[in-house]
Amino acid sequence: MERRVVITGMGVTAPNGVDISSFEKSLRNGKSGIRYFKQLDELNFSCQIGGKPEISEELLNKYFTPLQLRGLNSSGIIYGVIAGTDAWKDAGLKIEQNDYPDWDSGIIFGTGILGVDKFREAIHLIDEGKTRRLGSTSVLQTMASGISAYLGGILGCGNQVTTNSSACTTGTEALLMGYDRIKAGKAKRMLVGSCGDHGPYIWGGFDAMRILPNKYNDEPEKASRPMSASASGFIPGSGAGALVLEDLESAKRRGARIYAEVLGGDINSGGQRGEGSMTAANNEAVERCIQNALKNSNISSNDVDLINGHLTATNRDSVEIINWTKALNRTKNDFPMINSIKGMTGHCLSASGSIECVASVLQIHHKFIFPNINCDDIHPEILKLIDQDKIPREQKEQEINVLAKASFGFGDVNAVVIFKKYIA
Any idea where the Ketosynthase family 3 (KS3) domain is (predicted)? Predict the structure, then answer.
């Protein structure tokens, strides 16, 4: 039997919203979550701004026990646990406190670098000969699969529980991996998503590469400028996004609310060959990924109503648009609407794909298109290819049937997923 996969729950911890309702409101209003950080200034960073979710002590205490909070020093785990737990509850699923795992439910929750602050703390203690002061959770907070392990224990999942890591493609890749598992009949539901730590030890390498802007430290909300002629680099961000994927029949039996359907997608790599490199995508691989995502979803390029692009506010934005026009064979007024959330959140690195998948699904479910902020001066190379009204600068109320979401990451890796309005 051909299984259909739907989305029944979502959660988010983003720089501009730490729950689904707040996040949706920020998207509609074009609200930025990018702020100035004095610590980055004191550490002589060129770029002294970033996107960081605001988590209060009161909120922390709703998700972690006092014992769990003791020594917890991994922002990625905090973000992921909040987003993942919220998505589970949003799907109408219970968190059972018994001795029996939920064999039908699994987790694929990715990350890039986890627990850097905990590593730093541990290194100092070890160097000082104080190893026994590390605490019992240092391993859990610094192993890559720490986030899926935390969520697996909280939710009691007995199916596959694992972590993936593919740079900025991580979250979108996790979603497609979960989709494949349900499609193959190996699970009824999968919690999928990704998270990323914040702070100087994550963002410092990018500052050293000089790919972050340095002229907006006094105007942080104007700094991230996807598709803009004045874009001068991406703003680093952090957070987490989570989605509950479920076999349609299982969702219907539960009477679950269905946000959207996952039609399919594709994951590939350019092999760092041709124009592809560790930091730049092989354009042919991007085009193939888009085209294969459409083929695997049994739709044509003309079916796509909206693209939620990767679009990081670098000189690669115009190249990404070129790749979309070639892959879809659509240009000018025939091109779909396109937007990027990164003007509001910055580039949340390993968390970006999942946060942006949540943003994509919200647009389908609530019938709106969020604006591209800081894009009043669209790059002229982009205007040669698509009409400017395809890049909305204000919120649009519009029904969306099919949305293509893309993520492209360091290492020349790509992922494209196709979401569709659910029709029974």
Answer: 2-421
